[in-house]
Amino acid sequence: MIGNDWDEKLQVIENSNGFKNFMKIIDDKYKTSTIYPPKDYIFNALKLTSYKDTKVVIMGQDPYHGEGEAHGLSFSVQKGIKIPPSLQNIYKELYNDLGIPPKNDGDLTKWAKEGVLLLNAVLTVEKDKPASHRKLGWELLTDYIIKLLNQKDEPVVFILWGNFAKEKQKYITNPKHYVITSAHPSPFSANYGFFGSKPFSKTNNFLIKNKIKPIDWSF
Questions:
Q1: What is the DSSP letter of 6?
Q2: What is the distance between the alpha carbons of residues 144 and 148, in angstroms, rounded to a whole number?
Q3: Is the pTM for the entire model greater than 0.90?
């Protein structure tokens, strides 16, 4: 399903009747409605960032629901698409934190290849209907992914922005790991604790302290 070590890690789920039935429901939704991201991109975050290579997790809510935006990475949009307000604010905080200027597109694939798992809690959405696939069953899979990462011997940084992402914190119990929480970067909440939270430098300081190569956040 994925093409790297996640397949072995998720084998119990992938082979379960419950997950197979759930994926049939998702397949049917793609046949009857406009669903994002494109079907081949549903598991893009896992395909681009293997379990072994995951150093950082940035937890999102569900995919963007506008045409051509979502491509399976939290907060990221495909090249040529207008940069969403939340991502604009992420770029502002990145500049204020590390002095890295924003890029002119919203594709965060480079971060994924650096070891940043850009994971949404819900992996699909119906066009123009935010949170339409919440509570369908994706949370069971993404909860399990967080639990697997919690078991890693190597320290991992979990960046949880907003209450939706913070729901995953209860699964991060291994004291080796580092959890960074703040308000969501959305324009509605960014001024209430996201701006000035310095998640990028905090992440790299922790990785360096643990003798792990830091993330190159630049573009």
A1: H
A2: 6
A3: yes
Residue numbers annotated as active site: 62
Distances (CA, A) of 121 to 76, 100, 114, 194: 14, 28, 21, 20
Do residues 40 and 3 lie in contact, with contact meaning Cβ atoms separated by under 8 Å?
no
How far is the C-alpha of 95 from the C-alpha of 100, rounded, in Å?
5
Mean pLDDT is lowest, of 73-82, 128-137, 175-184, 193-202, for 128-137
**Quick one: pLDDT at residue 106?**
98
CB 206 within 8 A of CB 179: no
12: which 2 tokens? 């119990």
**What pLDDT score was predicted for residue 1?**
83
**What sign does the dihedral 33-135-166-156 (CA atoms) show?**
negative
Main-chain phi, psi angles of 25, to 5 degrees: -60, -45
Closest of 86, 62, 49 to residue 70, by C-alpha: 62
